[in-house]
Prior knowledge:
The protein is of the alpha+beta class and 227 residues long. 42% of the residues lie in helices and 20% in strands.
Amino acid sequence: MTTSCVIAPISLLRSGWRALLPVLLGWLLCLAVTGSSLPSEQTVARYGPQAQRLYRDWQTMLNNAGSNDSARLKDVNEFFNRRITYAENSQVWRQEDYWATPLETFGKGMADCKGFVIAKYVSLRLLGMAPDKIRLTYVKARIGGPSSNVTQAHMVLAYYASPTVEPLILDNLITSIQPASQRPDLIPVFSFNMESIWVGGTQNNNVNRLTRWKQLLDKLKTEGFAF
Length: 227
């Protein structure tokens, strides 16, 4: 989906329905072709005023995002790393392993590493990024530097320009997007997306075995997301 499919510019909203109509028709046509859609304002409102503000700012970011993968990765990564506060699930959701949708994250204004990765993944898919290019990746993060033996479970988003190249890593703990070789503090465990699971170099198409992931995808669909 091109960036113009996401939302009409705010300036057009102020200029009247006659000026806005061609944009809306083009947007709806694009959504019909790509099969992508966003939640309704009524759905967003259920998550509170903070969710509504962040959701509108997020739509603006998507609308203005760059036209190539590199620019889109940068725009999406910066938006969430700047606008969402990191917090453990136990603080945000009062449970240890909660998988939040972007709307839920907007409502709280906070997320754990999974919340950041999910929101970035959904955003990039809505921007039309090919599904085989991005994977949610479980890692062990070395605490105290690359030589430390102390690790903690963590999740990042990995971008593959092609299946055989070194991925770029989007991490809520680091502002810049870096090649995996520059992140020796991260030890990959396994990765997945809507199509497959990868453990080591082995690919498995039985992604439904990831119950939490399947439940999240169902929840996204219920909220009105489609991509």
